[in-house]
Specification:
heterodimer, A: alpha+beta, 10-stranded mixed sheet, 6-stranded antiparallel barrel, 22 strands, 21% strand, elongated, B: alpha/beta, 18% strand, globular
Amino acid sequence: MNIFLFLLLVPSLFNAIITEQILLLIILAFVYAILTFNYRTKDKFENILLIFVIVSFCAWLSTDLYFSKYVLVFSLAFYLNLKLLTVLKAKYNDCVKILLIMLGIFLIVQSTIFPGVSILKKVEKVASWDRTEWCDAKSYDDEIYIKSQYSYDILRKLINAESITNTHKLNEFSSLWVLTPTELFKSEEINDIYKWVLKGGKLIIVTDHTDIYGHARILSPLVKKFRMTINKDNVLDHKNVGGTYRLNFKELNGLSPNTFKGFGESWLTTWGYSERADYGGTNFFSDGQISDEENYSLWVIGLKRSFGLGNVTLFGDSTMFSNFALTRPSSQYILKKIFNDVSPIPYNLLAAISIFLYLFLNTISAKGKAIYCSLIILSLIYIILPTFKKERSLDFEGLKILNVSGDWNLIEPLSDHNPAAFRTFFASSYIASPCFPVWSGPNRKNSVIIFSNGKCLEGKTPEHPHFSDDEKLKKLLKVQTIVSLDDCFDEINKYAYASTYWFEGGIGPLNEYAYRLFWRDITGSSDKMKPYPILSNTSNVFYYVFTTNGYLKVDVEKSDIENYNGWKLLGDYIVAKEVKDGNLLIRKIWQRHPWQYKDMMLYKVNPHKNNPK
Amino acid sequence: MKIKSKWIFTFLFLSIVVCFGFGNSIAYKLSIGVIFALPLVDSIRQKQITKSIVAAGLILSSCYCNSLFLSSSLIFLFLILFYEEPFAFSFIASRILFSISQYLFLNDGIVTWYSAYIIFILFLFISSKYPIFGKLIAITYALLIVLNSFSFFNLPIVQENNVVPGYGLGNTIRKIVKKDQNGNAKMLINLKHYEEIEDDTTYYLEHDAPTQFTDGNYYQKRPWGNNIILANETIQMAISRDGFLISNLGGKIRQGKHKIFMSFIEGFRSIPFAILDTGKIIMSDSDFIADGLAPYQANLIKRITKTDYSYMCFHIFSALCILGVIFVKHELFIVLPILFYVFIYLWPIDGDVRFVGHRRYWPHTTLGEGVAKSMQDQGINAIFGSKNTSVLVVSTGNSAKWKNEKLIILEPMSKVKIGDKVYKSGSLELGFNNSIIDARDISVNGESLGPLVNTNGIKIIATGSPSRVDFRDLQQ
C-alpha cells in the first residue's frame, strides 16, 4: 500500500460531494500519516480504516458531527476500494491498469482548468440575463438609498455585459452572467443554455443568501442540469460579521453567502455556521444566532465545473457585486477572478498525476514508462497553463477611475477588532465620488490608504464625537441652533467612522453632502456636488408628537434647507422631511450620531382630535 | 512493539476522555468512539464473537442514547473488560472528584478537568503497582453513585406578578415532576443594589444581580450542545438526554470554596453554575426552569428533584455491576446495564407534544422543536412526551403514525398515517395561506388538499414554521 493509492481516491471525494472537501482531505491525510508512521503492514492499515469507519458511524448516528456522514461514506468507499483493488490486481492486473489510465484521463478532462476547445466564436462577449425584478442595472445619481445601493449598474459596466432577456442570440456570446433571477426560466431556455455550455459557453450564476425573493428555487432546474445544487441557507461566521472567504490561499472579507454542493471543484470556501432559510422571517433570514440548530463546517460558496466544452461557475454572494459593495477590495478581487475564468486548486489534476506516477513506478517496460511520463507532463502543463494566461482587465472605459492601494482592513476588516475606518465613505462612493476607486493588493498591513493622485488616508480612527443633546424630546426640539453647518458636517464625518455601510431608506441631505465633501477632497474634483445647504425661513412652529402620555404639543424651531426641496432642519440639526399635510417625518438614518430615538412623525394637527378612537 | 503502540494510542484518547474533551463534546465523543472501537476491531480480527457483539452493542446503543457516552460507570465497565485494569481504575479515580464535590467545600480551581487528569496519571501508577487501591477506589465510586442518585433538592416556585406567559417559574416544573416543590425561592435580576443572600432559600440568579456570591455576569458559549458541564455522572447524563444545559446570560458565581453541584468549563478554569452552601442553593441562571424552556430541560429537572425513578434504578444497577465486575469479569456486567438503559430510554412518557424527528430539541426555533416553547409563550402549559399527547409534530423527511392527537403539524416533506390514508406535505412555499404562516400543501394519493385539513375532528397543518402556529386559536 502506498500513498498513490490513497491519492487515487481523493478525486472521488471532490467529484462526488464537494462540501467539506478540504477537511476530509486533512482527516484522511491525518489517518494516513498515522498509518505510515506506526503501522506499515497491510493488516494494521485496514484495522485503522475499520476504526475510522466505526467512529464515523458513531458520530453520524449521534448527529453531533455534520461532517461525519461524509467521512463515513468516503472512508468506507476507501476501505472497499482498497479491498477491491487488491483482489482485482491479483487476478486482472492489466484490466486494473487500463481502468486506472481511463480514470486518470477522465480526471484531466473533468478538471475545471482543462482548456477545452470551444466551438463558439473566439471573441469574448458577455451577456447578462435581465429577466429579474431584483438586480436592476439602472443608474442612480440622485440620492443614496437602498435601491441605488443594491443596483448592479457598475457591475454591468465593468464586465461590459449586453443585456439579454431570451436565448435567441446566446450563441453570439462567450459568457452569460445570471444574477439572482426572479422570473422563472422556460424549459426551452434551460435546454438552450445547457446546449450552449456544451458547445463552450461559460455560465456564471450569482446567487445570494436564504433563497431571497425565491431566486434559488427559480435557478434550481437550471443548475440541476449541471448536477449542482444551491442550498437555501446563509453562512454565519463566529463573530456574526461578514465571513472570511478563502480563495485558494487568500483571505477575503465577505458578507452573507449561501452555499453550494454538487459536482465540480470549489474555488471559494468559508468556515461558518449554515443557517437555514426561514420563510416567515424578513428577507428569509432566520434568527441570526449561532446555536445548536446550525451546522458548523467548511462551506463551499464558489463552485465550478467543466461541462462539455464550457464550464459553469457558481458564486453565492450577489451583494458583493452591488454598487455600494463593489468598492470593497475583496469584491473587486473576486469579480476579476470570475471574469477571468477563476481556477480552483487543481485537485483533479493532482489526483491524475498521482495515478500516472503510481503506474509509472509499477511498470517495467520502457514504452509504458514513456506513456505515463507523457501523461504526467501533460497534467503538469494543464496545472501550469493558467499562470501564463493573460488576465483580461475589467472594462473601466465608461467610468472615471481612481487607483487605490493600501490596507484593505480599513475598508473591510477580517476581524471585528479593526474599526474599518473608511468603510462608510467607500460604500457611498458610487454616488458621492466622481471617480470609481479601483483597488490593487491584497494588503492588510500598513494602516494607510494611498490614492493614485497622491492623497493619503491614515487608518487612525478619530475620537467618537460627543453630543450633549437627546435628554428629553421636548427639550431637544426647542433647542436653539448652536453650531454652524460646517461644524455639523465635521461631526457627520466623524460619525462615518462609527457608522455602517447600510444605507437603508436614504441617508438625508446632510449626511450625503458630507460624504460628497469627503470625496471632493480626495479626488480634487467639484463634479457631482450639490449646492451647499443654506438655511432660510427660520421660524418657530407648533407640532404634535406622540409620546407615552399621548400627543404632546411642542414648539419647534424650523428652517428650510435651500435647494433641497422639502427638507427641513429642526432645532439643533435634526433633519426632517415635509410629507403629506405639512407633517414632518424624522428618520433615524438622517440624523447625526447618536440619535437615541427611532423614526418619528411631527403632526401639524393633533391626530387624536381628528380620530378620537 | 505492538502492545506499546496500542497502549500509547489508548492512553492518548483516554486522556481526552478523562479531561472531558476539554469541555468540547465533539472532542470527547470522538475520543470515546476510538476507545470503544479499538477493542471491537481487535475482537473482530481475533474472531472473538461475544466480545465483538458486546463492543458493537455498546457503540450502537451509545449512538442511539447519546447520554451513554457520559456514563462513567459504563466506561469503567468497558475498560476493565476490554482493556488493562490500571486504565479502568485510574479512569474511575478521576471521576471521584465530581461525585464528591457537592458534599465538600472545595475550591472551584480544584474541581476541574486538569485535576481529574492529575488524579488519572497518579492512579495509573498506583493501580499498576497496587491493584487493591484501584479496587477500593472503584468500590468508593460505586457507593458515591448511589449517594448521588439519591441526593436531590427542590426547585421551589417563585411567585412573580406581571410576568408574561413563558417567563414564569414553576408551573411547567410542577407538570414535569408531578409534585409540588417545597421551600422558599427568590429570583434576582437587574438589581440596583447589592442583596444579601439568606439561608434556607433557593436562589435563581440572573444577570446583573450583585450579591456576596456573585462576581458579574456569565455568558455560556454557543452552541450549547458542544459544551460539557462538569458534574457527577447522574447529572451529566441527564443534561445529555436533554441535549444541553439551557443558560444564556446569568450571574457569575464568585470563585472560592463551595459545594459545587455543576460548573462550566472555560479553558483551564471552571465557572460554578450551581452551588450548595450552608442552608442555601444558588444557581447562576434561571433559564432552564423558566416555563417556556423547562420542557426542553425535563430530564435535568427530574434528576435534580429526584423524580426520575427509572434512571435512579439504572445508576444503582450500574453501581452494583461495578462491584460485581471487580470480582468476576464477565460481559454480562456491561450488557445488562446497557439493555436496562435502552429499555427505560424507550419507555413512553406522558406529555402534550409528540415530536417525531432526529433533530435536537432547540427551543428558540421556528421549526417543530420550538412548538412547546411557542405554546408556553401563548399561555398553554405544554411539555414534550410520547404518549397521551394532543399535538403531533412531524419534522422534515420523517413519517409518523397518528396516536389520537387532535392537532398534527407537518413540516415540509413529512408524512403522517391516519387509518389507511397517508397525508404528505409538500416543499413548495405558499406564504401566508389559509391563516397559516409559511404554509405548504398537504396531499393524499397525489390529490392536493391545501395547507389545512380537518378530518374526523383532527386538524392537520402543513407549514415550514410550526412554532408560528397560533395555538390559542386552535385550542378554542
